[in-house]
Amino acid sequence: MLVNCVAYQEGKKLADIKPEDINRFLSRPECFVWVGLKDPAPGELAALQHEFDLHELAVEDARHGHQRPKIEEYGDSIFCVLHNVEVEGDELKIGEVDIFVGRNYVLSVRNQAQPGFAAVRARCEREPELLKHGAGFVFYALIDAVVDRYFPVLDAIEAEFEKFEEQIFSGKSLRANIEGLYYVRQKLTTMQHAVLPLLEAVGKLYGGRVPQVCAGMQEYYRDV
Question: Which fold has domain 2-151+188-223?
Answer without folding.
Answer: Beta Polymerase; domain 2 (3.30.460)
